[in-house]
Design brief:
Elements lengths: L14 H7 L18 H4 L1 H4 L3 H20 L19 H27 L2 H28 L4 H7 L6 H25 L6 H25 L1 H4 L4 H28 L3 H14 L24 H26 L37 H9 L2 H16 L7 H6 L1 H21 L1
Helix pairs in contact: 1-8, 1-13, 5-6, 6-8, 8-9, 9-11, 11-12, 12-13
Length: about 425
């Protein structure tokens, strides 16, 4: 494919169309603060030291965290709980959610790598997988956490965006849009004339998904919406409008092949307007690309795309005036417009269910460790002596009214339960 044309009316789409269709955003991976001293083994030392499998699991978690921290920096996982004097920390849930969100972003970055390599089908699967992970966070993990959280109000405004239900649900739509972009790129990269009608519907569906991302984030998490990087919001605005323009462009190509010349010219004319730089912040068209904006990398592709549409439109208008004489409507009629479709499905994700790790009550654990076989034998002999004296068991009323007896019963039950857990 080339951006230089001899016969614009029958020319194939230029490379710039493929590049603009497949433009996606790569998110940075959250970093762990290299100065933090968080350790699972140390935190759970008191209640896990009697269980070798629990200790092993904690050490494995610490080792993995150290490996990640070796390449990352700069998140304080317990920031929102530093001022608390009590011990009902929710840092474990925070760590779990951030780990899952980081996994989703890692999958999306693998998709970005595949996109750069031209493997668009693989990239589409990776983005659909990232969408499924964020859906799992937004519909399962986070709602359950917030329903049982004592710090819900504090978390809502102070914690990271990746731990909010609204943001995760919005991210699901963003990655589904990116997955569909890869589907469009897959069709465009194949030789021959593509199905332009299908591409027009897919591009309209991408724009609709991106708009849903914005509305979901604004309605369900307005506080974090206001904290998003303005350059990222500019990128989203650019992608929404360029997908609208591409949808009209593909529609025009399809209508021309179907001999609907007048409506095809109207579609390309609208696509040209949609690809112009807007004159007002709320006007129609693309946002202005500043000299320091990351969108500068797309400026050459955008320029070639605009030139291609101008050349195509001039050629079509000339052919229509000399040969076809079709009436050109001021805009594309509603019955001819592309209906947005969404073909990709979220790749569902769920954490594997693991067997619970055993823990011990600190008091019970200490008693078991301090006691020796000699003391156990002594206690056994003492109890035998007492039973030999024929002491009657306490009555129900005495047992219920005697607090020391109840504490002894609770202690015995806890010790019995601990023995059973240790023997399994």
């Amino acid at each position: 494919m080339s951006d230089n044309f001899i016969d614009a009316s029958s020319a194939s789409h230029p490379d710039s169309v493929l590049r603009l269709s497949s433009a996606v955003h790569r998110f940075a991976i959250p970093f762990i603060n290299p100065k933090d001293q968080i350790s699972f083994e140390t935190s759970f030392n008191t209640c896990s030291k009697s269980h070798s499998n629990t200790i092993a699991a904690m050490q494995q978690a610490d080792n993995r965290r150290r490996q990640i921290k070796a390449a990352m920096a700069s998140i304080e996982y317990n920031k929102y709980n530093k001022s608390k004097e009590f011990s009902d920390s929710e840092a474990l849930m925070f760590e779990l959610v951030l780990s899952i969100a980081t996994y989703a972003l890692s999958e999306s970055n693998i998709g970005c790598d595949s996109c750069v390599d031209g493997d668009f089908p693989k990239a589409s699967r990776q983005f659909a997988k990232a969408a499924g992970i964020f859906q799992y966070l937004g519909e399962d993990v986070l709602p359950n956490w917030m329903a049982n959280s004592a710090q819900h109000a504090e978390l809502e405004n102070e914690t990271l965006a990746e731990t909010r239900v609204g943001v995760c649900l919005a991210m699901q739509h963003l990655y589904m849009a990116m997955a569909q972009q890869m589907a469009v790129a897959t069709v465009l990269a194949k030789p021959g004339t593509p199905n332009y009608a299908l591409l027009g519907k897919l591009s309209s569906g991408i724009a609709a998904e991106l708009e849903t991302f914005v509305t979901t984030c604004r309605s369900k998490s307005p506080h974090h919406m206001s904290r998003l990087d303005p350059s990222f919001l500019t990128l989203i605005t650019f992608l929404i409008n360029i997908q609208h323009s591409l949808g009209l462009y593909f529609l025009g190509r399809s209508l021309w092949l179907n001999c609907e010349y007048g409506v095809a010219i109207a579609a390309i004319s609208e696509a040209t307007v949609a690809a112009r730089t807007r004159t007002t912040p709320t006007g129609r068209g693309l946002p202005e690309i500043e000299s320091t904006s990351p969108l500068q990398s797309l400026s050459p592709e955008l320029s070639n795309y605009r030139k291609h549409m101008v050349s195509l439109l001039q050629s079509w208008e000339k052919d229509n005036m000399l040969v076809y004489f079709n009436k050109v409507p001021p805009s594309v009629p509603a019955d001819k417009a592309s209906k947005p479709i969404r073909i990709n499905k979220v790749e569902e994700y769920c954490l594997d269910i693991k067997d619970p790790l055993p823990f011990s009550l600190p008091g019970v654990c200490d008693e078991q460790e301090v006691s020796s076989p000699t003391k156990v034998e002594s206690k056994t002999s003492e109890s035998t002596d007492e039973s030999s004296k024929g002491t009657n068991p306490p009555s129900y009323d005495d047992a219920m009214n005697n607090s020391s007896f109840q504490q002894q019963v609770d202690c015995d039950l806890a010790r019995e339960l601990q023995d059973k857990l240790n023997s399994e």
